[in-house]
Amino acid sequence: MSGLSQDEAERRLEVYGxxxxxxxxxxxxxxxxxxxFKSFLILILIAAAIVSALxxxxxxxxxxxxxxxxxxxxxxxxxxxxxEGAIRALxxxxxxxxxxxxxxxxxxxxxxxxxxxxxxxLEAGSRVAADARLxxxxxxxxxxxPLTGESEPVEKRxxxxxxxxxxxxxxxxxxxxxxxxxxxxxxxxxxxxGEIEEEETPLEHEIERLGKGLGVLTxxxxxxxxxxxxxxxxxxxxxxxxxxALAVAAVPxxxxxxxxxxxxxxxxxxxxxxxxxxxxxxVETLGSTSVICTDKTGTLTRGEMTVRxxxxxxxxxxxxxxxxxxxxxxxxxGEPIDIPDHDLSSILKAGMLCNNAHLLHEDGRWxxxxxxxxxALLVLGAKAGIFRDELEKACxxxxxxxxxxxxxxxxxxxxxxxxxxxxxxxxxxxVLSCCRWILVSGGQKLLDERMRKEILEASEKMAEDALxxxxxxxxxxxxxxxxEKDMVFLGLFGMIDPPxxxxxxxxxxxRDAGIKTIMIxxxxxxxxxxxxxxxxxxxxxxxxxxxELDRMGKDEFDEIVExxxxxxxxxxxxxxxxxxxxxxxxxxxxxxxxxxNDAPALKKADVGISMxxxxxxxxxxxxxxxxTDDNFASIVAAVEEGRTIFRxxxxxxxxxxxxxIGEILLVLFAFLFLDDLIREKGFPLLAVQILWINLLTDxxxxxxxxxxxxxxxxxxxxxxxKKEGIFTRRVLFYGVVVGLLVALQGVFIFNxxxxxxxQTMVFTTIVISEMFNAFNWRSxxxxxxxxxxxxxxxxxxxxxxxxxxxxLVIYLPPFxxxxxxxxxxxxxxxxxxxxxxxxxxxxxxxxWGLKKVTPSPQGLP
Length: 861
What we know:
Helix content: 40-55%
Shape: elongated
Number of helices: 34
Radius of gyration: 35 Å
Subcellular location: Membrane
Number of domains: 5
EC number: 3.6.3.-
Strand content: 15-25%
CATH architecture of the largest domain: Up-down Bundle
Protein name: ATPase
GO molecular function: ATP binding; ATP hydrolysis activity
Domain Cation-transporting P-type ATPase N-terminal: 2-57
């Protein structure tokens, strides 16, 4: 075949375009950066910075707020830039070079120059440069797992399709290119990936909602104060200053920064537990996940075919060990076999000689080069101390009859010390039809119908247990007869890609935490069911296939989606449909995957989790979290951290809320009811003092609270509902009750204090009260006396530093003028401490009472 001429190839290149994945037109970098500042809360923070500068005349607070805004914007910009890498990763997976036939000659060209109609030349180890239909295939097997997710290589013959980005494991072939670039299967996935829009995480939505709520609250408070002040005839400048103070008290300036820091600290802890977070907000979302959709191969399983069972001489031999590590034992009725004294060595050697794979030990781990099924036979032999390289020195291969789909078997001829032997492996029925004899104890005997029936029943039993079955036989070759006739039957191998050892426990933990684990795989339903059953994830759930899913309408699928635990033989579009249905049911969905086929689903899910070891670049770029050990158990650890992060965010938000409410109520109470005291002592709090309190209470203590470790019950709680955010009724209840106490503490101190010290004492009382309150929120239900005051060292440092800063403001002359403070006596400090401690006692009492009413470990609802 002469292939295309160079002139024709160039003409088609102009018509069809380059064979590459096209990137979407990117946003302007400047517009992308500016879009990070459209949040309503961010706008409030900018306004607060301007107000702070105008009212106080000091630029420090304004600079701090603006730096927070800038930091938040830069962070969002970086995350969006990373998201654009998904399409670029698809380009990297395309083969950089391709061999085609041009003008009757094989030439190597850039894969981007391949055009429809080109003749692709495929060899073992090469990557397919474009979609093509085979016109020639000799022993050709292709690894399509990056595209389809199926664990086993696909045998190809003339007339079959091969696809861009898949790899040729062995054999050779030629194919006519049918599609290039975005028209290939890879291109379709790239198109689907580009069409999926990034959705807001629950936390992002909550912060935006909170910002708008605070803005409305600020306007209402200022309007109320202005109305009352005008009715009372207060000076306009006084009303304005009071309105500014209340507005500043209502805005939690540091909240976005503290949340970002809390997420960053959680990110660091998750990295130590083998989960790298690419998108900061997904840390919290993972903690609220109610469904984990996971691939089977390489995620729940090891991604390494392993022989589990051998049948020979009418007996079944169990094999222990999993994966490519050559460690394990051979057991009959639970008792180990002494290999040298057992005929088992004959079937092991036959499986290794009739084999084209290689077992390698590189970088401290064992790996297979070639067909995983053949690799499993090499590992099996290595478990018995037999290695192929040494074996072939004694039995050199002299010929091979390759496997084909028509023959369903493969045969090698090996010259051994005592003659030439043929070794055949393949489908049980086919190999058995070639056999006249069977190996038995003490020699071989004629294979009768009863024995054939027993062998077939043993094969069927393995298949029912989702084991892939290979039969093996041999014969001594004499003369020029048919080498695959009158053979001696040796036995059967039953193999499977086994589950990871730790996954069963991780799935049980998810079950306790109210998280559904769903398997979505391209493998056969029987295999998927067997793995799901072994992992105890199926229960009473259903198993459905992609073809069954295709026959269901949207409403019908929505009705049964909650009951399905395994999806088998599915396509990438099926995965998206499953995620959409689960989201319609109100679930927060995490999706794990490693192949190109998983990328759209990873991006569509609330949290995409890719495999760092086996995962493709496309999957990693489309995901939010990358597992560095490909271990499902690491997902559970990440969920635990995510739940802890959200609990901590809610705790320090409640703590901060009580302070802001306390400030607002104190100023309102004074303005409405303490007119005589105000004329004598001035306002209880000034705007600059409120800013300082906010800076102290919203600064170091919340960051220290965000470092709180997971509690023992965090994985025994059910996931929070999707619509539930930070600001709940219980949070509001705690915030209002404690805030009211803080306001009453201020009113009490304001009443009893010397006029010269009143503002300073109220100012300091609120700071000290909130420091006691910080210890309350190490847990929303456990007593601080049970947890201990000394077990969170960052909080001790934060509280100590905050009190020290307040002392400096009170006693250093430069700060006294700026913050209108005067020195306090030890007696004053004693009164302040006793009054402030009531915050700790009140919340302790509330925890005790609520625990009596709701003893289950539910935390803040």
